[in-house]
Amino acid sequence: MTDVTQSRAARLPTTRFGLWLHGARPQTLVISLAPVIVGAAYAWGLAERFAAGPVAAAALSAVAIQVATNLANDAADAASGVDGPGRAGPPRLAGSGVLSARTVRLGALVATLVAAAFGLIAVLAGGWPILAIGLASILAGWTYSFGPRPISASPLGEVFVIVFFGVLAVSGIVWLGARQWDATALLLGLAIGLPAGAVLTANNHRDRELDARAGRRTLAIRLGPQASVWLYGAQVTGASLIAALALAPLTGAGAGLVALTGLGGLWMTARFARTPVSPALSRRLAETAQAGMALALLIAAVLVIRP
Known about the structure:
Elements: H1 3-10, H2 16-23, H3 30-47, H4 52-80, H5 101-126, H6 128-143, H7 157-178, H8 183-206, H9 208-213, H10 219-223, H11 225-247, H12 252-260, H13 262-274, H14 281-305
């Protein structure tokens, strides 16, 4: 190891369990749970019933897919040289040299098998739509980092996240819970996917220099620093407005309450704009994930209570 790599490795946990937990990036896993919460709440409102077992299995499968995606990204970035010593974000397992890229990739495979096992329970309850979503999610999770044209190196990363961690996830849970879905489910999925996309925007905005040197062309690189801030703001504020639009036919008061959270999005955008491209952006990333979960909980409460 170089001195820089040793310094980064020193910031990692010292136990094997701690290392794998760090590699799973637990601060971002709420991205997988937010659409489950919203989808389950909307399904209850549609059918006044709740398939708790299959939805719980789908939730565990979704978290496992995200863990697999995170670990695969860790291994791929180390193997390609993207995760170098100058990386501004938290240290990675393979990039820091504490685990080999092969070992981390095997961890991603194990997480994928766990996702498939829980996903099978959901498929047995929800049929072919859940099977299609599950297979597409697993495939997308691996092609995000691997393959001749990985999604993570392209301008399509945010689209990937919004579709799979928003639109498809919410729609799948609504189908699983109520055996139906509609335009409202799609809008709610878009609203929940946007903060997840903003997490990726913050990540790529922070890592733009290393990514550019490695030949990546993420949306943050294509747009430039100022436009990336505007993109981030559009996602975190747009999430509130789209959610309010989806809720308006169901509850005007609830829609108004959700729309007010857009003010929080403006505040977050201002903080993001003031934060230099540095490790400090990692805090904005974690805060964005937490804000997405808070929005999901509020939407779910509005769907259940119908104020």
